[in-house]
Amino acid sequence: MTQAKENIRVLFLFAHLHKGGMQRAVSNISLALPDNFEQYVGFFGTENPGFIYKATMHNFCFPGSESIGFLGKLASAWNRIKAIRTFVTQENIDVVVSFGESANVYSVLSRHSARTIISSRVALKESLAVITDYSWLYTLLVPALYRRADIVVAVSEDLGRQMRKIIGVPQRVSVIPNLYHLEDIRERSKHSLPENMAFLEEKNFILNVGSLCYQKGQDDLLTIFSQVHRNFDDLYLVILGRGELEEDLKQQTITLGISDRVIFVGFDKNPYRFMSRASVFVFTSRFEGFPNALVEAMACGAPVVSFDCPTGPSEILGNSEFGVLIADRSTSQASEAICELIEKQSSNMQVSQSGLRRADYYSEEQVIKKWVAVLG
Questions:
Q1: CB 335 within 8 A of CB 305
Q2: Does the pLDDT of residue 116 top 60, yes or no?
Q3: What is the spatial distance between Cα 88 and Cα 75, in angstroms, rounded to a whole number?
Q4: Would you say 118 and 129 are in contact if contact means Cβ atoms under 8 Å apart?
């Protein structure tokens, strides 16, 4: 008779709760893991968690941890490192899985006794280039520290190749894409739009979902929409997300003469109801790891047009097999592709159906097996 496997105590660690994509990824993994995993989710911050976890939450934030200045931030980092090490020891954690550069660095530097798994979730070179606070320090630390991890999990094949070069030990790198609870996504996609957005039920609109920041490229999106709008004066652009560039982007809509056709919704807990109704979902990121919103839009049946950026979109869409992939960030090619999808219902339906099939590849059942193998 085979003895039942003992529980595995796992700590998922990430730095900031305002990173919605990061939270969603951890939440999806947490909810899908079997019951023999005893889970904790650790974070640094004062915000309330916005997603559901099958885990005990632990906030590593403490008074004075938001210190400013180099010495203050150094002291804060040291305190966080010590807190992780203490927590792992006290709770008998078997494995720590960290998400994002900050959490990865904290986990490795803490030299805790658990197995160390770091999740690489965004193109590293491009990500480090736009870190405003002490990017030079991260650039030096990250490659050296990542080599000390037991396992590096990359969310895309391209990112996996990057990590193998950095680590120098290819067998330590595993590629596990994000997983999605597709039944839940598709059920929630049927929900009604918010009352103040109900008029969109009768309108054609382009959709984009993402933080309003340089990485997500909504400045190029507005340029694209200004070109498309010339052919469809009753078309709307709907943007879901919030971020530091909101006012700049709103000013850009005024400059381009499209302010009355662009709707900034802000954060919405159910973006899927917008995705299922969008005429086209447009993805304009400058860099990614594995873009959640792109797969989720496909799962909701939205035809997608995406820039090919490092990393993720080309892996998801193939050679425009499952959506329209635009090379070299060509705004003119993107606008032409969008116009064709809006004008030609047959093309729209074909892209929508192929996207639905592709999204099934990233179902919970397919991906969680890989996580169980790595964690166990």
A1: no
A2: yes
A3: 20
A4: no
**Which residue type occupies 291?**
P
Is residue 206 helix, strand or coil?
strand
Query: What's the CA gap between 27 and 207, in Å, rounded?
Result: 24
Residue at 362: amino acid letter:
Y
156 Cβ contact list (under 8 Å, min separation 6): 175, 177, 289, 290, 311, 312, 315
In the chain, helix, strand, coil percent, each to 5? Answer: 50, 20, 35
CB 85 within 8 A of CB 14: no
d(CA 264, CA 258) in angstroms, rounded, equals: 12
Residues 6+ apart with CB under 8 A from 201: 193, 277
CA–CA dist 318, 157 (Å, integer): 12
Rounded to the nearest integer, the mean pLDDT of the chain is 89
In angstroms, the CA 79 to CA 144 distance is: 21
Q: Rounded distance, CA 312 to CA 325, Å?
A: 11
Q: If you average pLDDT over residues 210-236, what whole number do you get?
A: 96
C-beta neighbour count of 63 within 10 angstroms:
5
Name the pairing type of β-strands 37-43 and 8-14.
parallel
Output the six-digit token pair for 3: 């003895």
